């Protein structure tokens, strides 16, 4: 069994080293190494440009504003969707998750079709503005707050709040002094993750903001692809890593506090969700107004979340002054610029996503299994914590950096007489690198929740270590593994940043082809892009809806 644990650590670390650390270092090294020697003058050069400070300021501003709005709207949503019991709650939970798993290109296309001149909200003149980007980021990250906070709120023991009410506290005061402090670790963790996703947004910002309202992520893409300034791209990659490392550190500490708080709370099966109806004989000032206010806010947000998606479908059916399926009929026709049909790109995306999901499941599952252990020695606990943090790094490094790093480093890697850049094998690998942190975050909370006494009892009854692992850990984590497969598949299906560099011209994935169609002039190309976006959105939403049914209730994890 010792050999298994060595392999469980060595295999993921080797995967991360070869397909993440090496390409990133190769990319950054191109910017900081001149004539074989280290040259850090790029920092002074890049930071002397007003454009750099404007981009960094825009990145921090849009991430901070979008995160604040997501938290303000998400906390009431977490209360309604996780603390209250009402018919249709599960369906609405799945609905609010759909925006998060949508490909970023689709989110950008959906919002642009809503805000362009002639769109339902075109009279607001928000197309290509900072406000449009912030709105799209809130749309994308609302589910992060709802599910992160709701997962903990679902587990909170209501007796503390009830005791405060019995002592005369008003509903608002009981929430502010009892419930809110208990939820703070989950709120901070969700806000940190939301800030992370906002700060590293790529496809959405690229579609909505163009070159006027960029982020550090889009600027790395611009400097790499348009200006060929690898030194500037390397400096910006380091800047982004510093920003995101801070967000990951904050999220990690908040997550640890949340897990400790959940360990002290009542078991999930003993905490019954409250109902929307006032209990007979209870006073009228029992917080019913607060519940109705939260329900109203949540209902409004859900309607706003549906608006871009519904409009996307309607605009895809618009043909000239009438309606029809012309744009969907064109999905099978190869484009003039790419020579590839949308259905062909969809098949490529599905094949690639299957391979990427299998890779992410193996690597992320092994990481979650190792990190879920509880070593007795302090050195062992620090090593486990370090491994967990190590595999969150792909969330903090630009996908553009990873993609271009593959191009730089995968020509005859390790002296092998093969050029992996032309083989197409790098696309699923790059997508797996992005999906591994999602797999870890979904499986790890369930494995950590396994009572060690179950393993001890199985061992006492004569089970071998391998059988204990299969019959206890894997059987309990089976549902979370299914959920991880769904989310990893959806994430791979919509990955755009790294894939835009690695996809072969004759075999683009669907997000890459949609971006190409948007850039082509003509109403027909735009209509086909809308129809292709609907197809991609339907695929990801269907996958997530199916995997959502596998979610184990009361796990208390992020998802």
Task: Characterize the structure shown.
InterPro entries: MetI-like (IPR000515), MetI-like_sf (IPR035906). Keywords: Cell inner membrane, Cell membrane, Membrane, Transmembrane, Transmembrane helix, Transport. It is a multi-pass membrane protein. This protein has 559 residues and is mainly α. The chain folds into 2 domains: 1-36 and 332-559, MetI-like (MetI-like fold), CATH 1.10.3720; 43-273 and 292-316, MetI-like (MetI-like fold), CATH 1.10.3720.10. The chain contains 22 helices and 6 strands. The strands form 3 sheets. Strands 1-2 form a two-stranded antiparallel sheet. It is globular, with a radius of gyration of 24 Å. The model is unreliable at 263-286 (pLDDT under 50).
Please sum up the structure shown.
This protein is mainly alpha-helical and 559 residues long.
Q: How do the strands and helices of this protein lay out in sequence?
A:
Layout (H helix, E strand, L loop, with lengths): L1 H31 E2 L2 E2 L2 H7 L2 H34 E2 L3 H13 L2 H12 L14 H24 L5 H8 L4 H29 L3 H7 L6 H10 L4 H35 L9 E2 L12 H29 L1 E2 L2 E2 L2 H4 L12 H30 L6 H13 L8 H11 L16 H23 L3 H9 L4 H30 L4 H4 L7 H10 L3 H26 L11
Parallel strand pairs: 3-4
Antiparallel strand pairs: 1-2, 5-6
* Largest sheet properties: 2 strands, antiparallel
- The protein's oligomeric status is single chain
Give me the count of strands: 6
Strand content: under 5%
Query: So, CATH architecture of the largest domain?
Result: Orthogonal Bundle
Protein name: Iron ABC transporter permease
Main location: membrane
Family: Belongs to the binding-protein-dependent transport system permease family.
Subcellular location: Cell inner membrane; Cell membrane
